[in-house]
Amino acid sequence: MDFQFTEQQEMLRATVREFVEKECPRQLVRKWDEEHAFPMEVLEKLKKIGVMGIITPVEYEGMGGSIIDYTIVCEELARSTCWGLASYFNAVIMYGTDMILHCGNEEQKKYFLPGLARGELLFAYGITEPDSGSDAAAAKTMAVEKGDHYILNGSKMFITLADKADYTITLARTDKDVAKHKGLTLFIVDTKSKGYSARPLKKMGGFTDTTCEVVYDNVEVPKTHILGGSEAVNRGWQLLISTLETEHLEVAANSLGYAQAAFDDSLQYAKERNAFGQPIGKFQAISHMLAEMAVDLHLARLCVYQLAWLRDSNKPCYKESCMAKLVATECWTNMAHRAMQIFGGYSLMYEYDVQRYLRDSYILLIGGGTRQIQKNMIAKSLGL
Asked: 271 and 374 share a domain?
């Protein structure tokens, strides 16, 4: 197996890293977090370097890049530690491009993909409900057929950027008389539709994007916006499952970038902070902790990029996607905990980034499937 990135991929990484260092210096990222705001002009500048169309095929005005290319961009944007920047990017790529590319019909691809590739459209992902998180198939949001459209009623919870998105991919029940997995359909809901509302929720981290409660009150959705077309009615669960590998990869790649930032900060601090007449990194307790962090980070990176390679190779990789999601998210959380120990009292101060790493890490530990759900899926793949 060749672990070498291509020259083009190294150039892509350098381009994104240069953008991040210029547009998202740490003092500004810290300020945005404290103000619970993300400057949209940074997103506009990101669009100009072309990465919004990274995995969009050339025939739909994209770059035609690989999943490895996408993973590189995810990691570098997350390494900026600017939650909002990575979140907005993934709202375009994961919730929009990947869903339309793999689940949409040809008319939907032609209509949505060019705008997504230019970064002109923002999508949200309306799956979780107040009473169904890990058990997403228990969705109660109903869609009733009426003429040339469906009427949606129900609610969703913890939906990222649902108040900012142009469209929300929404899972709704279209047949309540069959097994729960068989009566679901995915809809592309225009957020400007009458009856659609999104209310941002207060949370402990990820302050530079929004997490919302969404209500559908007699929202009309044309049949042309059934994801996958009319033949995809009651096949929403199968379509949803087919995209989970990419969702796991997105979460894992972002976790990897944040974990790398936490490690970099910890290593630098251990070299610069003096106690008892020497840098604290010279003490075995600290040096061993950093060594363990380096090993965990290396293992997480191998899992993440192997998953990206499997996806590019069109090989079965659901088990590996669960493993990568589990390993990378736990790596980030553990990295943040160890960074708190290395920084000591300063880790609690808002003038340092370490406390933010810990706060933010729990979002991805839960989002995309908890660690327990990932373990369940891995165990199932082992025949247990």
From this structure: yes
**Claim to verify: residue 268 and residue 162 sit in the same structural domain:** no
Is the pTM higher than 0.85? The answer reads yes
User: Is beta strand 149-160 parallel, antiparallel or unpaired with respect to 211-222?
Assistant: antiparallel
Please identify, among 86, 121, 156, the residue that sits at the C-terminal boundary of a domain.
121
Buried b (16+ CB within 10 A) or exposed e, 122-131: bbbbbbbbee
User: Do residues 10 and 73 touch, judged by C-beta distance below 8 A?
Assistant: no
Q: Is residue 152 part of a domain?
A: yes
Per-residue pLDDT of the chain (384 residues; tens, 9 = 90+): 688 999 999 999 999 999 999 999 999 999 999 999 999 999 999 999 999 999 999 999 999 999 999 999 999 999 999 999 999 999 999 999 999 999 999 999 999 999 999 999 999 999 999 988 888 889 999 999 999 999 999 999 999 999 999 999 999 999 999 999 999 999 999 999 999 999 999 999 999 999 999 999 999 999 999 999 999 999 999 999 989 999 999 999 999 999 999 999 999 999 999 999 999 999 999 999 999 999 999 999 999 999 999 999 999 999 999 999 999 999 999 999 999 999 999 999 999 999 999 999 999 999 889 999 999 999 999 999
Same domain, 294 and 347: yes
Q: What angle do CA 329, 94, 250 make, to 5 degrees?
A: 20
